[in-house]
Amino acid sequence: MITCYFGENKAIGGLRHVTVNALIIDNDKVLLGKRGTAHGWKMTEFGKWGLIGGYLGRDETCIQALKREAIEESGSEIDAITLFRIKDDPNRPKEDTQNVDFIFIAHFVKQIGSSDTEVTELKWFPLSALPAPEQIAFDHGESIELYKEYLKKNHSLPLLG
Predict the structure, then answer these.
(1) What is the pLDDT of residue 144?
(2) Is 1 helix (H, G, I), strand (E, B) or coil?
(3) Which of 31, 82, 114, 120 is most buried, judged by most C-beta within 10 A?
(4) Over the stretch 111-148, which tens digit does the pLDDT of each residue have?
């Protein structure tokens, strides 16, 4: 949880974090990163495959944060960014900070760098050959499966929940 200070320096706790994640797509494949350590702490989902993304910075828009995270975690330049889903369930599995997650579809443009220590390996997975569910971090597998369903049925976007 976040503790913020408003007005006469009064603490207000219990606020939720905002994260952005990308389904980076290229030719019916999704780019996943194997979770490493971040900023010196061990993540509960260490060693599992996850979407590329992270926390929204103080002075960023969601799109700016998504592009920054794509470069930091995968060295990828992305474009054609579309809001896919907003996950705001306070009881999301494997979450200890109750993140509100904005998930975007983004198309891979080109490789312009390499990943940081938050990701130990990058791999393009065909949508038909994803890692086993227990090897996917957080609830990212649910969003990937929903994206596959979206491709078949073309639901209107964004999806909520």
Answers:
(1) 97
(2) coil
(3) 31
(4) 897 777 788 999 999 999 999 999 999 899 999 999 99
Alpha carbon distance 67, 16 (integer Å):
22
Question: Which residues lie across from 119 on neighbouring strands?
Answer: 35
Q: Kindly give the pairing relationship between strand 76-87 and strand 159-160.
A: parallel
Count other C-beta atoms under 10 Å from residue 118's C-beta: 21
H/E segment holding residue 143: helix 140-153
The pTM (predicted TM-score) of the whole model is: 0.86
Structure tokens at 54: 């992270």
Share in percent of the chain as helix, strand, coil (round to 5)? 20, 45, 40
- Location of structure tokens 């989902």: 45
**What are φ and ψ of residue 15, in 5° steps?**
-80, 155
Whether residue 93 has a cis bond before it, omega within 30° of 0: no
pLDDT tens, position by position, 22-77: 999 999 999 999 988 665 444 677 889 999 999 999 899 999 999 999 999 999 99
Could you tell me if 56 and 19 are in contact, meaning their C-beta atoms sit under 8 angstroms apart? yes
